[in-house]
Specification:
Organism (chains A, B): Acidovorax ebreus (strain TPSY)
Keywords (chains A, B): Signal
Oligomer: homodimer
CATH superfamily of one domain in chain A: YVTN repeat-like/Quinoprotein amine dehydrogenase
Protein name (chains A, B): Cytochrome d1 heme region
Structural class of chain A: mainly beta
Strand order of the largest sheet of chain A: 3-2-1-32
CATH class of one domain in chain A: Mainly Beta
CATH topology of one domain in chain A: Methylamine Dehydrogenase, Chain H
Pfam family, one (chains A, B): Cytochrom_D1
């Protein structure tokens, strides 16, 4: 219904309708309100992974405020936001890139841009949205307003085959950094001329980079290596950027345990001169000195950590776990480096997101079909929302941070 | 071509038009446009100090998008934003507190709450706006939605007279911290019950605190002392909070020079484990180790620094100066701790504000009636805006940061 109206609208002005207008007369599935004037700094989305839908939320009211359906396969989805915090760009596992207007609560643009995709990024000036793809392996650059394809950058191995792309993040000056899982390389694409990006490749960075992060200040890009012990780090303030191997033996310990789920590097917490990392296959969080990048401690936790996330002030680090311990969340006090609380928010905790100033954290409990909101100071429940199989939670404040 | 098509398309759906193109029927000066749907993450205000007005700006388009008049004496004004980034709260020198709707571009609330005021803060949950006052000395707590006065907290000296209040900042859990210029004290008001705040006073913190800041992570509150050498610091993670004197002889050197303008402590940059501080009455920026709070270096600059501000990634620190050097701005590269560029944006540079991800900086040049926008990477001009006697520049992203 909604989709049909959109499609007919965009058919007559394909370059323009996306990013701007949505049909004035329609609403999304479950009685979304008519679009009203409102600020967008306290909005966000929760991925409904089974239904291919978004629940739209307001973090001031701590309520669901709408729902948008028709986003395809969201079994491993991620989201970035437009610079004005009005539009969400949703990268679906099936290669769908969908632009959603949080005000009208409509899909305002959608392209199937790959066969298998795992995320994307947006430039600081808000003009470019970039997707990283597994199949076919490479990166695609889109006009953020229209979703017009501006550049297609296939990624190749030395033998000329396609490589899967992981760990995409934005850098200043319309540049993007990413890693090639099958080519053991890190690439930086300068998209200042977005129809003719210039790609710089750093080869031999280590075997099989599987995910990566940029530190909150945008200086360090760190890729996890699946094919060997350790991590690859690039100091982006070096000119030219060079790679350095850090944390050999990262997290594995003497007797490696079976790994149920690879940790998400995006979950890494950097707070107060320390990085807090999920150990791989062990019930530990690693503490690393960010000046030397050497391990300086380990904190025992309740399971194999997946996301290890700092509250924005760095005073706490919150940890969730893989099967079979994924009903728990633990809170680490960073000054004492001890677990100070174990919470049981619900079944199958998949993701957490802090409000921008850190007073609350939202936690998705997939198998309870619920999002649980906590006060991070009292550790008491502030709200519960019914959401079908929630996974990723993303707030618009991400638009104003580097490296997402 | 593209724009024309857009306008005809959106003409039938006026509520939807903005966010993409300039509104068809509008804009700027005094006649506020019909409010249109738009995101609020890229909005901001520039204080017109002589006219008692605000120029409303958009940092994506780098343009003025409207103007609001009637705010009284804005000769020393500051601004905080509502949690949804829709409303600006403007604290005027004359004690006026004005709530401005950035979407409708109208004043939506205004109270004269004191005779002489120098700023305010807003709680992380967005519910409370607090003003700090010189005359009569004290703090007032308002409902952020209605501007209803919830609590009046007079500040007193030991002998029972009123003390001027400075250095107000928000803390977690609806608490606010501030300093008493005439009582040599720092106070923390717990407004979790906003009609009956509980005030904790830390006495004997040093003579005449004149301004203060909270570190970006919310941990350290640092007050400058007018009546003695040095600074007073409170580690807010201590329980109970205690005060400690740091940087004795702060910035004065062997032969103190005449001070033309007290530096603004809110301008302090904290980046990469160092704080960059304006020396008092000297042509230097001080470098301080934030682990030990000891001075570790001095950087010669072109005049007496007023604002010393870090780009959000900490790679650069920008400095402006008091009379007679206030036509200049210098850029310090933090890894090398050297001045790498001297700019001359215009006459009487009063303030600077970085975009949230740091790609641009906006600089007010009061005596040229101009705001100058620079690309922080190329150091080239990106835009110029005509604004009458501009002073403070404030972007909505402040809503999502601690300690403002």
């Amino acid at each position: 219904m909604k989709r049909r109206a959109l499609l007919s609208l965009t058919a007559s002005a394909p370059l323009i309708a996306t990013g701007c207008a949505a049909p004035s007369s329609t609403t999304s599935t479950s009685a979304a309100p008519a679009a009203t004037l409102q600020g967008t700094g306290d909005l966000g989305v929760v991925i409904e992974r089974a239904k291919g839908a978004l629940t739209l939320i307001n973090t001031s009211r701590r309520e669901a405020v709408g729902r948008v359906t028709g986003l395809g396969d969201l079994s491993h989805a991620s989201v970035v936001f437009s610079r004005d915090e009005r539009f969400a760009y949703v990268f679906g596992r099936d290669g769908g890139l969908t632009q959603v207007d949080l005000l009208t609560q409509h899909i305002t643009g959608r392209v199937m841009q790959a066969g298998n995709s795992i995320g994307g990024a947006i430039s600081a000036d808000g003009s470019l949205v970039v997707a990283q793809n597994y199949t076919p392996g490479g990166v695609k650059v889109f006009d953020a307003a229209t979703l017009e394809l501006l550049a297609d950058l296939p990624a190749h191995t030395a033998s000329g085959e396609r490589s899967r792309v992981v760990g995409l993040a934005d850098l200043p000056q319309r540049r993007f950094i990413y890693s090639l899982f099958d080519a053991n390389a890190i690439c930086i694409a300068d998209c200042s001329n977005p129809r003719k990006p210039q790609v710089t490749t750093i080869p031999n960075i280590g075997r099989q980079p599987y995910d990566a992060l940029v530190s909150p200040n945008g200086r360090h890009y760190i890729a996890g290596l699946f094919g060997e012990d350790g991590l690859a780090m690039v100091d982006l303030w070096d000119n030219p950027p060079r790679v350095r191997r850090i944390l050999a033996g990262y997290g594995r310990g003497q007797q490696p345990l079976p790994v149920y789920k690879m940790p998400h590097l995006r979950g890494w917490a950097i707070a107060g001169g320390h990085a807090y990392l999920p150990a791989i296959g062990r019930h530990e969080v690693l503490v690393v000195d960010t000046a030397t990048w050497a391990e300086v401690g380990r904190i025992p936790v309740a399971g194999q950590p997946v996301f290890v996330m700092a509250r924005p002030d760095g005073r706490q680090v919150w940890v969730n776990f893989s099967v079979p311990d994924y009903n728990r969340v633990q809170v680490i006090d960073t000054p004492s480096q001890r677990v100070v609380q174990t919470l049981e928010p619900g079944k199958a905790v998949l993701h957490m997101e802090f409000t921008p100033r850190g007073e609350s954290v939202w936690i998705s409990c997939r198998d309870d079909n619920r999002v649980q909101v906590y006060d991070t100071h009292t550790l008491q429940s502030q709200a519960r929302l019914d959401v079908d199989a929630p996974s990723g939670i993303f707030f618009t404040a991400r638009a104003q941070r580097m490296g997402f």
